[in-house]
Design a protein that fits this description.
With 446 residues, the chain is of the alpha+beta class. The protein folds into three domains: 2-222, Rossmann fold (3-Layer(aba) Sandwich); 239-326, no CATH class; 332-445, Phenylalanyl-tRNA Synthetase, Chain B, domain 3 (3-Layer(bba) Sandwich). The protein contains 14 helices and 20 strands. It has helices spanning 2-11, 29-40, 57-73, 84-91, 95-114, 124-136, 141-144, 163-172, 189-204, 208-237, 266-283, 290-298, 392-398, 403-408; strands spanning 20-24, 44-51, 77-81, 117-119, 150-151, 154-155, 239-241, 244-248, 306-309, 313-317, 321-326, 338-344, 358-362, 371-373, 380-381, 390-391, 411-413, 419-422, 426-427, 439-445. The strands form five sheets. A six-stranded mixed β-sheet has the order 3-2-1-4-6-5, with helices on both faces. It has a five-stranded antiparallel β-sheet with strand order 7-8-11-10-9. The protein has a four-stranded antiparallel β-sheet with strand order 14-17-18-19, with no helix packed on it. Helix 6 (124-136) packs across helix 9 (189-204). The N and C termini lie far apart (63 Å).
């Protein structure tokens, strides 16, 4: 098994020379065998153990067992205590999800801070169980491909081995481990699949697990091809301007569809599915869900301005594009490259009119200090060249501003709150240069 283990690491390019490895060590047979294999191969390892305090003295016994093992083999051990039930209560998640989120949050912090690889003891049977868990969740190809041998700094060197192979190796090499009593509790979905579903497949076909793993591997290869093609297409049609991501609506064929689902032809239904899937693959990168994607697609032919929100991002359906940008735009966006200068007007002075990023104002009409801010609802100003006032929102709409442009346009006001300049677009007529202007105040947006 040691030779197979080392060969798999080499074939999958899991560990390079000089890599340091943090081993997630629960005390169960899988993680104990992983730790011993890595140690016997001579890798530079440390251990990390999570105590979720879910099984009382049994959880504390696991921690003590791991501490004694680490001390015996001379490997440094990190231990983190978690109040998992409190997390369940506050975050309104299942116990399984709470333990997972707490565990990976800690692991992420550790590997990102140290640059170590994190070795997880997932094996072939875990891979099969994960496939069925994701299948029952309605996952697409990305979920059905299950786990990868390497994902960033996370490695799974035992993904090739079965549970029985691992246990047999532990017995033959006198490797001690702790049994988790909850592993037999079919309240948990993974255990239900392990104890109830998999024996049915074994009875149907002796090599069922092997064939399921083959299918998972095929899905992984197909997923990689699909991702590459998707990335290529997105690169051709997605526009990225800073934090703004846009795709023209014309790339989604929304030809008139029959009102009744049963009236759709096979080609029409396939087209709908392809549009939905492609849109979802784009918006999921920003935290939008599959169900939200359905609403987004259904709204593309409606009035522009429809907004959708994920955790951190806003999607807006504009007249010609679908735009995505962060919800929270920092104040740093308010102060990029604004430079100010003041000079006396001379006889050869020529007013700058062609460059909208330059505002030339009558210094004596300004009340300092000037301030820079975003647009507020109800803002009104006197657009240069027009009589009377205009709502800034109307000015935006008249000039075809997108939601993103409205949120990111800078507005300069004087000390009394009067708008001086909508940066890059129009100054206020009250501060324009006239024949009586003696001193010019110039602002340049770089």
């Amino acid at each position: 098994m040691l030779t197979k283990f080392q060969n798999y690491i080499t074939e999958q390019h899991l560990i390079n020379k000089g890599d340091r490895i943090l081993v997630a060590l629960s005390g169960g047979v899988d993680s104990m065998v992983l730790a011993e294999l890595l140690r016997r191969c001579g890798y530079d390892i440390t251990f990390a153990h999570c105590n979720f305090h879910l099984r009382g003295k049994e959880s504390d016994g696991d921690e003590q067992f791991v501490r004694e093992y680490a001390e015996r083999v001379g490997v440094k051990l990190f231990v983190r205590q978690f109040d998992t039930l409190e997390y369940v209560e506050t975050q309104k998640v299942s116990v399984e999800m709470a333990a997972r989120e707490l565990r990976y949050a800690w692991f992420n912090d550790m590997v990102n801070a140290s640059g170590q690889l994190l070795a997880l003891a997932h094996h072939a049977d875990d891979q099969i169980e994960t496939f069925f868990i994701n299948l029952l969740r309605g996952s697409g190809i990305k979920g059905l491909k299950a786990m990868q041998a390497r994902n960033g700094l996370y490695i799974r060197p035992l993904l090739w081995a079965t549970r029985e192979e691992i246990k047999q190796f532990a017995i033959e090499n006198d490797i001690q481990w702790r049994e988790d009593s909850t592993n037999n509790d079919t309240v948990y979905l993974r255990n239900k699949i392990r104890h109830d579903l998999m024996p049915v497949f074994d009875s149907i076909k002796p090599a069922a697990r092997e064939k399921i793993l083959e299918s998972v591997n095929h899905l992984a290869s197909e997923n990689q091809l699909y991702r590459n093609l998707l990335k290529e297409k997105l690169s051709q049609i997605e526009t990225v301007d800073g934090v703004l991501h846009s795709i023209p609506k014309c790339h989604f064929d929304r030809s008139k569809q029959p009102t009744c689902h049963f009236e759709r032809s096979e080609a029409e239904s396939r087209n709908l599915l392809q549009n939905h899937q492609f849109l979802f693959e784009w918006v999921r990168n920003f935290g939008f869900s599959y169900s939200q994607c359905e609403s987004i697609l259904a709204s593309l032919d409606g009035e522009p301005g429809k907004e959708f929100y994920s955790d951190g991002y806003q999607l807006v359906i504009e007249k010609d594009t679908i735009d995505i940008f962060p919800i929270e735009l920092t104040d740093n966006l308010l102060t990029p490259g604004l430079s100010y200068s003041k000079f006396e007007r001379t006889s050869n002075f020529k007013l700058q009119t062609s460059n909208l990023n330059v505002a030339q104002l009558d210094f004596d009409k300004l009340k300092f200090p000037l301030r820079v801010r975003h647009w507020w609802h109800g803002d009104r100003f006197h657009p240069l060249g027009l009589k009377g006032t205009k709502l800034v929102s109307d000015f935006f709409n008249d000039n075809g501003f997108t939601t993103y442009q409205k949120r990111n346009t800078q507005i300069i006001t004087d000390s009394e709150g009067e708008i001086v300049w909508i940066v890059g677009y129009r100054i206020d007529d009250r501060f324009k240069i006239t024949e009586k202007t003696k001193t010019i105040y110039q602002i340049v947006a770089e």
